[in-house]
């Protein structure tokens, strides 16, 4: 026999579920805040859960009509369960950027988050409540205006209570809000519902902008010497703090440190805290302050301008997609089934990118002779860091061979991440070695730049994607490495000592990539801005 409950009681149960289960992370945050204050009014502390209950009651009641209640709250419960888990376990803040990351994630990346912990949480907080809601028989008041009156009364009482609390404790709430800017982004479901709305408005259904070619006047300065072969390596989730080249105590750069012509830039900032923002931004001529996704997708980027100049371009993909920056250039996406020795399931070690490289470079035919190969690494992509390096590269132990990284010790988690950094360094050294074999044909060089960093538990945060203005350095400070052959240095008039001094003393960012690559490739165009070319101060003439 089915249990029968009135709609107002069902609404109350839903309010309690969202307040006490899905919003548990915000209560934990409030607890940390209040325990750090010298003086806390008891009434203010007690009002916090009541305010949330009243607010949810006022918001939920308009959606409790027949034929709307069950489908609406089924969707809300399922999504809130996943969101609250991510907030509770990883400290993730849900805004439009995080919603974009989730909706644009490929299946391989999505399944990397699956583990026993999330499955159990989802069963208890989503599957069981939804089954209960669907099984429940709900009584709706008749006539219809009686139910409407009850809902309006419930909304009015909730709003009246909120006004009363604001009258008594406005200063307390305002003070907490001023000093803890993320708190309003932690309320479930308003945080991700607002993110979904903004994603739909600003990205999914944004007003189309006519495509704008830029740099069509680009040309390579012909000096009569050898053409250039440049490797541009886009890193994934690497943070500068874990680079021994930048002072980290563990030897994570033992391969590239042997290269006398390698330069590491110590202070470089990313354009975003997630691939979906950083990669399109770093390949655009828009700076971080100017960046707009709709504009960036509607104009040429770095690779397009290089092609306008006659440079032959190839993009090799091992990270699930180029976020639009390679749409107009030849692209090779790694197919895991074709490389079983480098791949497991749908994930491949980055060494796979070297396979067939000689043949692919030889097959690149451009009008000018110079070539650029871009590599998109899997790098240090979490949370399954342990899947980013083969068994022989498990150097820092004990590591953490699991995806529920919050259950690993800090030592295990950092060791696993450091193994990914070391493995990337190994791949970079192999790419440099490959370039050295081609020096007789080309002036060769390599530029490596990561898209964003990563949090490993500091401040209660894991992974990445924190809104930029709240993000710690762990997520925004990224490694930038350059290696240029002695012949290319002479050809470009590049002073390595000057470059090292610049790399050690100045701050750079993703804003510099577009113009620096045009500069080092000797491309002249009106869209080039020498002030953003980090190599220019160290070039003769």
Automatic annotation (TrEMBL):
It is found in: Cell inner membrane. GO terms for biological process: lipopolysaccharide core region biosynthetic process. One of its GO terms (cellular component) is plasma membrane. It comes from the Bacteria. The keyword Glycoprotein does not apply. Residues 52-202 form the Phosphoethanolamine transferase N-terminal domain. GO terms for molecular function: phosphotransferase activity, phosphate group as acceptor. Residues 230-523 form the Sulfatase N-terminal domain. Keywords: Cell inner membrane, Cell membrane, Membrane, Transferase, Transmembrane, Transmembrane helix. Its main location: membrane. Pfam families: EptA_B_N (PF08019), Sulfatase (PF00884). It is a multi-pass membrane protein. The chain crosses the membrane at residues 12-31, 43-65, 72-93, 113-136, 148-170. This is Phosphoethanolamine--lipid A transferase. It comes from Aeromonas media.
